[in-house]
Amino acid sequence: MRVLGIDPGLADTGWGVVDFDGQHYRPVSFGTISTGSGEDIQKRIYTIASDLGTLSERYGCSVVSMEDIFFTKNITSAIPVAKVIGAVIFRFSELGIPVHLYSPLEIKMAVTGMGRADKAQVQEMVKVILKLRTIPRPDHAADALADCICYCTHRGIGGALR
Asked: Which domains does the chain have, with CATH numbers?
């Protein structure tokens, strides 16, 4: 199975592609889609959703795992991310690819075993699970790879650290 993980954001959206055979993870590719703050928000959201659709087609992804919206105090900063999430779900619905949303707590729990793990702990475990030499950069790409691992774990077919 090939999973596309997405860490949604308006300025930077992280993405990662991982193969999983039920026991072994294999990282395929990862990166970010960046949009400029000077651009129209509609164009930025369209670019993100369109580019992610193109990536899923290029890599032949069968499922998408994406971090769901999370905010504690400032709802204003969460609104643009929510718009990106909606556009991405729409794009993958057009492509017939299922999208699964996970909270940050669920992702941390799936990757580290601790729902309150910090960013450095999650990134280190992503490196270990995917057998990478270094922590993936930028941070948004590492988060997207964590989304992939979370999906595999939550589907009841993951967890082997071989």
From this structure: 2-154 (3.30.420.10)
